[in-house]
Design brief:
It is a single chain. By secondary structure, this protein is α/β, with parallel strands linked by helices. The protein has twelve helices and six strands. It has a six-stranded parallel beta sheet with strand order 3-2-1-4-5-6. β2 (122-126), α7 (134-141) and β3 form a beta-alpha-beta unit. The N and C termini lie close together (8 Å). The model has no long low-confidence stretch (mean pLDDT 93).
């Protein structure tokens, strides 16, 4: 068993760790889509007069689109954006993103998913995405892995990450306890969400952020890539 996992069990006074489900974030964990999302957000925000960098985009990764826009409005104007304005900005962001080529899989993500499935564990995707065709996209890239009823998306959430809501919903849908699930995240806000939900949270630093951005949000363990997680698979997924 991984040392950090042992510490997590002791800290939470769990009698045991009985893994039943793994909750995967999507962008930056399954798909190498964050460079495209980040570029689209920067262009859209700049179009509307906001100073917003690629690093800002990565730091806001995991939020719903509306929450990201509200965050910038509050900083600049002291209040949230109205619904019409939010839709206008998000539509522009979506336009820029849709002009990009389809994102590729994160290296070794499919291999990890197959290993998790072979263990008989439930596999969930927990994302702030609001893609209507999300399941089709997942099935095309990761066939025979994901199921419609094992997803938490922006359509399910009222608040979204970094609130614990998405991962608490995943626990509810999976029918498991906090000592029976693991979160795999790459974004500070996603890590914050998993930790706030009381779950063992693995940070995969697949983007441009400094590792300490994940560490300070409470990631129980941080790996530089998916391959390293696979190399340590048996210490966590047992």
């Amino acid at each position: 068993m991984n040392l950090q996992l042992k510490k997590f069990i002791e800290k939470n006074n769990f009698h045991q760790f009985d893994l039943k489900a793994v909750f995967f974030d999507m962008d930056g964990v399954l798909f190498d889509s964050m460079p495209l999302h980040a570029e689209a957000w920067v262009k859209a925000m700049n179009d509307f007069g906001f100073e917003f960098s690629l690093y800002d985009a990565y730091m806001n990764e995991g939020r719903t689109g509306e929450s990201t826009i509200d965050e910038m409005f509050v900083k600049k104007y002291g209040h949230a954006a109205d619904q019409q304005t939010k839709q206008k900005i998000y539509d522009i962001k979506a336009k820029y993103f849709n002009e990009c080529p389809a994102p590729k899989q994160i290296s070794d993500a499919f291999e990890l998913l197959k290993m998790v499935k072979a263990k008989g564990l439930q596999i969930f995707v927990v994302t702030g995405s609001a893609q209507i065709s999300l399941l089709d996209t997942l099935d095309k890239n990761f066939p025979n892995i994901f199921e419609k009823d094992k997803m938490v998306t922006a359509f399910d959430c009222k608040i979204g990450k970094p609130d614990p809501e998405p991962y608490l919903l995943a626990l509810q849908k999976a029918g498991v306890a906090k000592n029976q699930a693991v979160v795999v995240e790459n974004a500070p806000l996603g890590v914050q969400s998993g930790v706030a939900a009381g779950l063992f949270t693995i940070g995969i630093n697949t983007g441009i952020l400094r590792p300490e951005e994940l560490e300070k949000e409470g990631a129980n363990i941080i790996y530089p890539n998916m391959k390293t997680l696979i190399e340590n698979f048996d210490e966590i997924f047992f």
